[in-house]
Amino acid sequence: MDLEDAFQVVGEFGPYQKRAVAVLVLTQLYMACQSMLIVLVGSTPEYRIEQEKSGGVPSGQQELLQRVTFTEDIDSIVTEWFLIKHQAYKVSLAGSLFFAGLLVGNVVFGPLSDKIGRRPVYLTGLFFEVIFGYVTALAPSYEVFAVSRLLVGLMNGGIGLVCFVLTQEYVGKSYWAMTGTLTSMTFAVGIALFGALGYFIRPWRSLATVANSSGVLFFLLSVTLPESPRWLYSQGQTERAEEVLRYMALRNGNAANRLRLQRVSGAKAGNRDNRGAGVLQLVIHPVLRLRTMVLMYVWYACSLVYYGLTLGASETSGSRYVNVAMYGLVELPAYPLCIYFINKHWAGRRKSMASFLCLAGSACLCTTFIPENTGTLLSVTSLALLGKLMVSAAFNIAYVYTSELYPTVIRNAGLGVCSMSCRVGGILAPFVPSMRALHSSMPFTVFCLSGLSAGCLGLLLPETLNGPAAETLEELSSPTRGRVLESKALLYEDDKWKPNHK
Predict the structure, then answer these.
(1) Looking at residue 483, what is its pLDDT?
(2) 99 vs 428: CA distance, rounded Å
(3) Which DSSP symbol is given to 257?
């Protein structure tokens, strides 16, 4: 039997898979706290600068005699290392270093997990993220803090990708949309919980320590997780894939003693198609090249708008802790909408993602016509929250959709490259609010143009609803009919992909 038939025997989403997916999904709570850490530990309180009088001091050195007094009772890296005025950029820099780490982590961990396996990469990354998280909490200087954020981001980006892929490869394809949505939903809950945690734990070192300690628990729970049977099958390790599937079936209470997978994958394990599966295939394969170019821009726009709005939560009026929680909770209605629309034949993955991106861009556009600090329901803050809701839905669909557009042998590499582009948006996001110096509406204009352009470009992609999941590049190259970026009939001859005219 093939892999999908095997999951029908084992159970597409049985009790064992539910427990395994629950561990991976709940790990998103820890990852959300690490992603949002700089929002609260980098809070800049109100302060005043007093000029101390001293005779005989040259005018060029008067600034040395200024005394800074913080008027808010806030303990953050800003108050500890006086990151104000000419040093204020270091707060945004720390946030950007985290996203730079995510970028490198996606590039390194994605292809690595395709090569050596999902489980060892995931466990190693989670272990070191916890270690570097404690370095953040105990950092003796800003420089150590900044480097630790880079390293935490490196691990976070890698395991976030592998974690998402595992939640889908443990279950049948009909549950991919649900498990992917649960992952994104739990991340949103993690943002809200981090806002509440910050309200009760004010010292920034204590907050960083408590937020990081949950990672220890999730690491211990993850040690028992098996390797992905889909990855084992795609690598030609059919016997090991059967062992994992039988173990799952046993824990699910199903009899699968006679479960036997087709040996075709083993025969392909040594051919040049699978040997060439890697990041290079995203460039030389005609179908993958075009899809990847579109998806990279879509992910970039999603990240820029998503994190640009989220990281600006502490700068809006009202309690910074309530704002952080609200920017997390506002995402939750987006995910039931995702599950509903992406499984409808008249909407599907492609149209739903494009529509949500365009709606996010439109909401950001509307903020440019609303005066700031209006007390009405239709305010800049409410429209920003609406934009956050829409882009959260689009971001979630992008994860599910992208994993379906890439075959198993190259899925993590494809997701890694798309996530790399996504992190470029994350790196730029902390600096977009500073564009208010040019014009108050400039940040939302950037978000608007990014969302609208990505939504329109996403319509070029093929629909994957109710289609079979490709396991190898050969399956991707089977003859089909459809859009410009749909799979074409291709053959790999003379080290090149050529049209199949047979």
Answers:
(1) 47
(2) 9
(3) T
Kindly report which listed range (108-122, 169-183, 246-260, 464-478) carries the lowest average pLDDT score.
Answer: 464-478
Angle between the 286-311 and 15-41 helix axes, to the nearest 10 degrees?
50
**Beta-bridge mates of residue 68:** 49
384, 366, 356: which is closest to 452 by C-alpha?
A: 356
Using one digit for the tens of pLDDT, what is the confidence trace for 198-238? 999 989 999 999 999 999 999 999 999 999 998 888 888 88
- Residue 464: closest CA among 345, 310, 314: 345
Cα first-last separation, the chain: 28
| 497 SS3 class | strand
As a whole number of angstroms, the distance between CA 393 and CA 366 comes to 19
Q: How many Cα neighbours within 13 Å face the side chain of 413?
A: 21
Contact of 438 with 322, CB cutoff 8 Å: no
In Å, what is the CA distance from 34 to each residue of 13, 37, 110, 124, 213?
29, 5, 20, 17, 11
CB of 412 within 8 A of CB of 230?
no
Q: Do 76 and 42 contact (CB within 8 A), yes or no? A: yes
**Better-predicted residue by pLDDT, 330 or 483:** 330
Residue 404 has pLDDT above 80, yes or no: yes
The pair of three-digit structure tokens given for residue 217, joined into one six-digit string: 């628990």
Task: Report pLDDT digits (tens) over 420-430.
Answer: 788 888 888 87
Gap between the Cα atoms of 358 and 447, Å rounded: 11
CA neighbours closer than 13 Å in the CB half-sphere of residue 52:
10
The encoded tokens of residue 23 equal: 């561990």
The pTM of this model reads: 0.76
Mean pLDDT of 398-411: 85
CA distance 105 to 152: 10
Query: What distance in Å separates the CA atoms of residue 340 and residue 336, rounded to the nearest whole number?
Result: 6
- Rounded alpha-carbon distances, angstroms, from residue 410 to 113, 262, 395, 404: 10, 20, 21, 11
Whole-angstrom Cα Rg for the chain: 24
The answer to whether the beta carbons of residues 205 and 76 sit under 8 Å apart is no
Q: What is the pLDDT of residues 77-114, one digit of tens each?
A: 988 888 877 888 888 889 889 988 988 887 788 788 88
- Whether 332 contacts 186, CB under 8 Å: no
**DSSP assignment letter at 370:** S
245: Cβ–Cβ under 8 A, 6 or more apart, which residues? 6, 7, 10, 229, 256, 259, 261
